[in-house]
């Protein structure tokens, strides 16, 4: 393969690019698991793989560290796969098309998968380096993190002996997450009735939304394209009679929807009303979201008629349900209140989103509309409150809830030994202090610490921008520096 970064003296760079050449969407981690197993075999390392494609690779301590306690290294192998609307890239078969721009590595037209490819690369570099000083290593390459199923829920924990954990699922250099959220995700499922319909069909398309990560970006109060599309349809429905044919938008439960489209029918004489509303509402939306999504737009085009549409009750139920289901931040705090130093999106003083909901994806298939949804909170008690609210709304419209995943967050003290070591290493290297962050994210750490009590945890990662959306980029210099911190920490364990 053709590499884009200089590799001499930077083994983690080569492994990152190797990973990017292998398709590794959630639930499609078999190929990367094969790569990891072959990596272990080639180096005569102990390895284990389960039926989900979780992989564990162990390496004995380097000379002089034989009596040191082991450390677990952990990162997930799956990536969020989002591409530009006009891209023909196939995430199940194609290698990412990497390039460098102003010192940042990016993938053409797609997400990069630095979440959490940088961590996988660090772990492989450590396993490959026979000059590295380190205690026994237990490297856990987990699967399905991005869809919340979570490989750590099903791994055999008798494999592990470590009581110290370095997790790499973080995207800012010099930060450490000391609190993460509990998360519940799943689908609202609504059956709909179709009837014969010969009226002309039209497609409303919402595009230009920035999109992004439903945890890291949820506090920005940006456009959710599903909600904008619903707003258009509900407004139109107040003036003319329409029937839905389909409603499809978003990419994943844990992504903010940046694009959406719905097909509906109406009398031909009302097409001007539909077009005019798209222009009026686009102007309003751009003013409302000028600071976050200045390019968002609503457009109307003719669609091919299928000769049928949802009946009036089904149409009203779907539009009203999507209008009423909340999305975005629910509670914010501007003080720590025992949760640690609070920051939001890396900006001190803006407060932290404590609790949120995300209406991430909608799709129509046959006679069923499925709505992918996520609840997230640093306060597990609020998960129950906000889910009850959404369930009450959904029940009124005959939509059933199906839980797909439910996993815990974690909170621990800044005084823990691993965190103190990370502070010491970072201070020596940079002269700066590590920022302890209570973050509005869910990771595999919460599940791991549920199974391994008294686990001492830190998180390390390089500067990465645009997680979960095309344009995602990782700063190469930060990628290198963070690997240096990691090696120093291992040598001090």
Please characterize this protein's 3D structure.
With 493 residues, the chain is an alpha+beta fold. The chain folds into 2 domains: 11-178 and 411-492, Aminopeptidase; 184-407, Alpha-Beta Plaits (2-Layer Sandwich). It is built from 10 helices and 27 strands. It has helices at residues 11-20, 30-42, 114-128, 225-239, 271-288, 312-324, 380-396, 417-430, 445-451, 476-492, and strands at residues 46-49, 55-59, 71-76, 98-101, 104-107, 137-142, 164-167, 175-179, 182-191, 194-196, 201-207, 212-213, 243-250, 255-256, 260-265, 297-303, 308-310, 328-333, 343-344, 347-348, 352-365, 368-377, 400-407, 435-438, 456-459, 464-465, 473-475. Strands 9, 11, 13, 15, 16, 18, 21, 22 and 23 form a 9-stranded antiparallel sheet that branches. It has a 6-stranded mixed sheet with strand order 1-2-6-3-7-25, with helices on one face. Helix 1 packs across helix 3 (114-128), helix 4 packs across helix 5 and helix 8 (417-430) crosses helix 10.
Structural class: alpha+beta
User: What's the structural domain tally?
Assistant: 2
Please indicate the percent range of residues in DSSP E strands (runs of 2 or more): 25-35%
Low-confidence stretches: 335-350
Sheet having the most strands = 9 strands, antiparallel
What does the radius of gyration come to?
24 Å
Q: Name the CATH homologous superfamily of the largest domain.
A: Zn peptidases
CATH class of the largest domain: Alpha Beta
The helix count comes to 10
Shape: elongated
Specify the CATH architecture of the largest domain: 3-Layer(aba) Sandwich
Helix content: 25-40%
Would you report the number of β strands?
A: 27
Mean pLDDT, to the nearest integer, reads 93
């Amino acid at each position: 393969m053709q590499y884009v970064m200089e590799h001499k003296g930077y083994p983690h760079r080569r492994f990152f690019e190797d990973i990017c050449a292998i398709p590794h969407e959630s639930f499609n981690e078999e190929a990367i698991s094969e790569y990891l197993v072959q990596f272990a075999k080639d180096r005569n390392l102990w390895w284990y793989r389960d039926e989900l494609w979780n992989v564990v690779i162990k390496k004995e301590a380097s000379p002089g560290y034989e009596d040191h306690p082991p450390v677990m290294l952990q990162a997930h192998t799956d990536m969020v796969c989002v591409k530009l609307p006009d891209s023909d890239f196939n995430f199940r078969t194609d290698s990412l098309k990497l390039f460098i721009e102003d010192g940042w590595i990016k993938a053409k037209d797609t997400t990069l998968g630095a979440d959490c490819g940088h961590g996988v690369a660090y772990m492989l570099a450590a396993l490959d380096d026979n000059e590295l000083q380190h205690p026994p290593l237990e490297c856990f390459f987990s699967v399905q993190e991005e869809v919340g199923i979570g490989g750590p829920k099903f791994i055999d924990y008798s494999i592990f002996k470590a009581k110290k954990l370095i997790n790499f699922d973080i995207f800012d250099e010099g930060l450490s997450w000391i609190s993460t959220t509990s998360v519940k995700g799943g689908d609202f499922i609504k059956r709909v009735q179709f009837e014969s319909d010969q009226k002309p069909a039209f497609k409303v398309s919402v595009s230009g939304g920035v999109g992004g990560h439903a945890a890291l970006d949820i506090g920005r109060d940006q456009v959710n394209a599903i909600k904008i599309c619903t707003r258009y349809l509900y407004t139109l429905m107040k003036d003319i009679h329409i029937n839905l044919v389909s409603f499809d938008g978003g990419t994943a439960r844990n992504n903010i929807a940046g694009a959406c489209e719905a097909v509906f029918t109406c009398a031909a004489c009302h097409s001007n009303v539909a077009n005019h509303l798209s222009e009026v509402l686009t102007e309003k939306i751009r003013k409302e979201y000028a600071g976050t999504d200045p390019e968002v737009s609503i457009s109307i085009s003719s669609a091919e008629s299928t000769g049928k549409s949802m009946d009036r009750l089904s149409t009203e139920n779907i539009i009203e349900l999507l209008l009423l289901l909340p999305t975005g931040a629910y509670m914010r705090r501007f003080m720590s209140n025992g949760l640690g130093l609070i920051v939001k999106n890396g900006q001190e003083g803006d407060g932290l989103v404590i609790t949120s909901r995300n209406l991430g994806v909608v799709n129509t298939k046959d006679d069923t509309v499925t709505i992918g949804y996520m609840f997230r909170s640093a306060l597990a008690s609020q998960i129950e409150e906000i889910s009850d609210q959404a369930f009450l709304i959904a029940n009124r419209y005959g939509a059933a809830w199906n839980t797909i995943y439910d996993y815990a967050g974690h909170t621990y003290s800044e005084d823990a030994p691993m965190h103190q070591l990370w502070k010491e290493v970072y201070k020596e290297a940079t002269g700066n202090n590590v920022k302890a962050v209570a973050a509005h994210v869910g990771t595999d750490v919460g599940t791991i610490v549920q199974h391994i009590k008294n686990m001492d945890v830190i998180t390390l990662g390089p500067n990465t921008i645009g997680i979960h959306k095309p344009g995602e980029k990782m700063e190469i210099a930060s990628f290198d520096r963070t690997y240096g911190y990691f090696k120093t920490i291992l040598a001090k364990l």
